[in-house]
Amino acid sequence: MPTPRRNPLALGYLAVLLATTLFARFGDAELVDRLQAFSSSDGHNLLDHPVRALVLSGLWVAGPVWMPYFWAFALTVAPLERRIGAARTVGVLAAGHVLATLLSQAAVGLAVSAGRLAPDALDSVDIGVSYGVLASLGALAALLPGRGRPVLLVGAVTMTGYQFLSESELVSRVGHPSALLIGVAVGHWLRGGSERGLPVRRLVRRLVPSRA
Q: Where are the transmembrane segments (predicted)?
């Protein structure tokens, strides 16, 4: 389980999500709708205010329930943070959230241009942290040693494949598998850098004797 000492990022992020979830449930409905539309990373917001949309959209959960995100963070973001540190975990979360959002909204824009979706799809509220969580899952799977890596990868691909088949919204059908693949790519890159650094660390240990 996450602890404040080992997982300051995961627990801090969960605290922010809990606050926005409680506000969305108990706050003034009109104000909540306005703030979520303001935070949305939909097509029009991305064109007009890309940084604001990409940052604020990740501070909400999609839906009224917070507890599933606690378990999602406990099983993906928290162990990833313990493995690679808070700073790199922020990078994984950001890469998944930003790149998957851009890819999914680009798909929406192409569908609107082709007449497959109505123009108001570019204004559909798009908020949530699922892309960052899935990217964390992919990175964690890529970083695991031995048999744990293929087992977790197969489980992650099976889950996103089910989501792809069951989801009706184009945003989710494109964004979820994209986020997972982005996380796997980042995790593979991190693992490669770690493996390349092993001989250097071993050499340093040989040249600099440890103190008793």
A: 53-78, 90-115, 127-144
Q: Which domains does the chain have, with CATH numbers?
A: 8-207 (1.20.1540.10)
pLDDT in tens, 36-79: 999 999 999 999 999 999 999 999 998 889 999 999 999 999 99
Residue 211: what pLDDT?
Answer: 46
What is the DSSP track for 128-163? -SHHHHHHHHHHHHHH--TTHHHHHHHHHHHHHHHH
Amino acid at 184: V
Quote the pTM value: 0.87
Residue 163: per-residue pLDDT: 82
Do the beta carbons of residue 143 and residue 83 sit within 8 Å?
A: yes
Q: What is the model's pLDDT at position 176?
A: 94
The C-alpha atoms of residue 19 and residue 98 are separated, in whole angstroms, by 22
CA angle 26, 54, 87 (to 5 degrees): 100
CB contact set of 109 (below 8 Å; sequence gap of 6+)? 43, 122
Q: How far apart are the first and last CA of the chain?
A: 33
